[in-house]
User: Which sequence fits this backbone?
């Protein structure tokens, strides 16, 4: 029960990683503002209530400054302040080639995926500081580490998030507010549903996640558990970092792997 009595905002909480993490926060005593642009936020709040937790849903756009301000104000109104924000909302925008991208595509993706976390930090941090300490967690991606795990604007937006948490941690120096990012690998969520559905429909389920040494895709809860760690006092000396949670995908250059238990030729 690491979050008993804590006031927590999760954006993108209507599905996937955001929903799973909201439920985990609530299960550990957190009072959660579940924020999403869709009515998935209401469903998440209902699931939490059913489990005996405390949650309040808000429909909002994580890339709109007014709506982020409104969401932070709601947390303060409902729960008397703010201790944690998990800036998780994101969109993929598909996987267009660089030369097929339009300026509008870049603007749409950067607005949600990069300006969104910036706004979350900008407006949540002052409220968290009022509590004396707290944490900010953002969802980046392995796509932000190097090319090949998303479209060009998506990858650039996530690289931006990694740098943003470094800068924010520095600029919050002395405040006792830590800022970190998580870089998930392939996780089964709304964002990856088409790929999972396609693989299953074509009998290729065993190919999902084969590129990482755990040889499987991840579950949203496996990201959620890391988000809870980073948001909790367990991570009291972790600051300005991007923690990769990808089954080991990014630990190697693309080489032919030696099978476990078999001798190299
Ligand atoms: N699924 C993966 O493999 C994977 C890998 C790396 C990173 N991520 C990141 O994880 C985060 C969560 O995505 P997910 O995989 O759970 O996908 P998801 O589609 O299941 O969930 C994303 C949620 O964000 C919401 N959202 C989108 N735009 C929003 C906006 N402007 N304002 C408020 N809410 C908005 C959506 O409605 C949705 O409920 C994203 O930032 C994504 O980029 C996902």
Assistant:
């Amino acid at each position: 029960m690491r979050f008993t009595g804590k006031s927590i905002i999760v954006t993108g909480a209507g599905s996937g990683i955001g929903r799973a993490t909201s439920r985990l926060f609530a299960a550990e005593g957190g009072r959660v503002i579940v924020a999403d642009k869709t009515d998935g936020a209401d469903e998440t709040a209902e699931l939490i209530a059913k489990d005996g937790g405390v949650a309040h849903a808000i429909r909002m756009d994580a890339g709109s400054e007014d709506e982020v301000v409104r969401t932070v104000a709601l947390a303060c109104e409902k729960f008397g302040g703010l201790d944690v924000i998990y800036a998780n909302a994101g969109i993929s925008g598909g996987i267009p080639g660089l030369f097929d991208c339009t300026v509008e595509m870049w603007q749409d993706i950067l607005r949600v995926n990069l300006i969104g976390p910036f706004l979350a930090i900008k407006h949540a941090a002052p409220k968290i500081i009022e509590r004396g300490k707290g944490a900010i967690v953002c969802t980046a991606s392995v796509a932000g580490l190097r090319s090949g795990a998303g479209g060009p604007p998506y990858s650039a937006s996530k690289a931006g998030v990694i740098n943003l948490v470094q800068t924010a941690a520095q600029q919050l120096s002395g405040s006792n507010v830590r800022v970190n990012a998580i870089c998930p690998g392939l996780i089964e969520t709304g964002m990856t549903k088409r790929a999972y559905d396609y693989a299953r429909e074509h009998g290729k389920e065993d190919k999902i996640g084969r590129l990482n040494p755990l040889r499987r895709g991840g579950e949203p809860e496996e990201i959620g558990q890391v988000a809870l760690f980073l948001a909790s006092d367990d991570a009291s000396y972790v600051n300005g970092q991007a923690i990769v949670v990808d089954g080991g995908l990014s630990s190697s250059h693309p080489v032919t792997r030696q099978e476990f238990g078999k001798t190299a030729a």
